[in-house]
Design goal:
Elements (H helix, E strand, L loop, with lengths): L1 H26 L14 H13 L1 H8 L2 H4 L4 H5 L10 H4 L24 H4 L4 H8 L6 H8 L1 H4 L5 H12 L5 E2 L2 E2 L32 H5 L1 H4 L10 H7 L1 H9 L23 H5 L40 H12 L5 H35 L12 H22 L3 H29 L20 H7 L1
Antiparallel strand pairs: 1-2
Length: 462
């Protein structure tokens, strides 16, 4: 009887094992692959299959994106309407090539060459609305109103394209059915698009991953915010915030959901985005980097954002300062935050009153006396000295104080301001005392740039 019982038990166990083995074999996870048969139109499948072979990097980037996870395809961003100015004529040729996958007319869809914030607004309306009000989106207008290089034609068009416009943006144009090479490629934050929108979301969320993580990292901002005139990334790296970031960045939760990135939980010290864009405490996330700013430290004379003539902010600096203080108070005590602003405001006052205003008065006197010539800027040494006083050392001093980087506030900032100021005033007084006109560089190199302000921006303002 016992032997029979054991035999029955063994039989049952064997049957259960066979059933479990068959079930496991049937349900064992398959090798991971991207599935495209999830309700996509055949035209979208054609895009994916073609790019999978022709531009594997683009395809791979997209498969790793949140867009792909949400079944958002090439068409959702790139599909154009008949008559749109930015339709790619070159792309149309792919639909009649027998050697291309899906190269048939039945898959044809008009494709936009450049994806714009207007395209992104189909799914991200609030972000695009905020961005449109920002200094980023309107930086070409600001640049033309502020910069003597452009208005005086003191650099070449290509120097501008490869330098200034790479970050600020171009005015896109179409020639012979495709984007004009003099304006493309470009993903500048203030790019003027053919559909009338301003900017490029891929400046910070690069295609085709469109990563929130990427935009949260300071290196992304450092693509443009660096160098002698606005070294925010260098300043950040010197600061205590930057030091903590470098030490602990591997522990940061970069992929926290938008609007939920929280100091003390997801990150230990802030990045650029933490202070200027991300939500924190009761402060909401914004894509308008003009918010939370209480001084315009890029301006020649430091002013409140609403008084910045090239682009007056539609904000109240006291309200915005309170927002920034609330960000700071997530990690700092009230006395720390209040005393920081005392130091910052004092640095702004001293720059304005001690350095900029006396130098500007002297510059105006030289022009009034005819000792400097206004025909072109930068072709006389004192014009360069004055420009670099505010555009280089003056900005570094103010921005260093603003972001708590002592080396930039002093050695790269006010220390250099003193020497630049002294050289400028010494030469200026010599010209006045001797009634001598300043030497003009007769062969200023490559001063061939077009001085026409972009009508796509300035005609709309009239």
């Amino acid at each position: 009887m016992r032997t029979r019982t054991i035999g029955i038990a063994i039989g049952i166990a064997t049957a259960l094992l066979a059933t479990a083995t068959a079930f496991a074999a049937q349900n064992f996870p398959k090798a991971r692959e991207f599935r495209i048969e999830r309700g996509m139109p055949e035209q979208a499948i054609a895009c994916i299959e073609c790019h999978k072979q022709q531009t594997a990097g683009i395809f791979a980037d997209w498969t790793m994106s949140r867009h792909a996870s949400a079944n958002i395809t090439c068409l959702d961003c790139h599909q154009a309407q008949p008559g749109d100015l930015d339709i790619s004529r070159d792309h149309e040729q792919y639909y009649s090539r027998g050697d291309m996958p899906y190269g048939e007319k039945r898959y044809f869809i008009p494709i936009a060459s450049a994806v714009t914030p207007k395209d992104c607004s189909r799914c991200h309306p609030d972000e695009v609305k905020q961005y449109a009000k920002s200094k980023h989106a309107n930086t070409i207008e600001i640049m033309w109103k502020l910069d003597p290089w452009l208005n005086g034609g003191m650099n070449s068009d290509n120097e501008r394209k490869t330098g200034c416009y790479y970050c600020h943006g171009t005015v896109l144009k179409v020639t012979d059915g495709k984007l004009d090479s003099s304006t493309w490629p470009n993903v500048g934050v203030g790019r003027v698009n053919l559909d009338g929108s301003l900017g490029s979301c891929t400046s910070c969320h690069t295609r085709h991953r469109f990563s929130v993580m990427e935009a949260r990292k300071p290196e992304t901002c450092g693509q443009c915010h660096l160098g002698p005139d606005h070294p925010q990334i260098e300043i950040y790296n010197e600061s205590k915030h930057g030091d903590i970031y470098q030490a602990f960045k591997q522990e940061y939760n970069w992929n926290s959901a938008p609007g939920a990135w929280t100091p003390g939980i997801d990150y230990r010290a802030p990045t650029c985005a933490s202070c200027h864009m991300s939500g924190s405490g009761s402060v909401l996330t914004t894509h308008d980097v003009t918010e939370r700013i209480s001084w315009e430290t890029q301006a020649p004379l430091t002013v409140r954002p609403q008084d910045f003539k090239p682009f007056p902010a539609q904000t109240d600096w006291k309200v915005e300062r309170d927002k920034m203080k609330k960000i700071c108070l997530q990690c700092h005590g009230k006395a720390w935050v209040e005393d920081f602003y005392v130091d910052f405001d004092t640095a702004v006052h001293e720059y304005n009153e001690v350095y900029f205003k006396p130098a500007k008065k002297m510059l105006d006197d030289l022009y009034a006396k005819g000792l400097l010539d206004k025909t072109k800027f930068f072709d006389e040494a004192l014009e360069v000295e004055f420009y670099e006083l505010w555009h280089h050392e003056g900005r570094r001093a103010r921005m260093g104080a603003m972001m708590m980087a002592p080396d930039y506030a002093w050695w790269h900032g006010f220390y250099e301001c003193k020497h630049r100021f002294n050289r400028f005033m010494e030469e200026a007084r010599h010209l006045v005392d001797t009634n001598t006109k300043a030497y003009r560089y007769p062969d200023f190199p490559n001063a061939t740039g077009d001085t026409t302000r972009p009508p796509e921006i300035f005609n709309k303002k009239q």
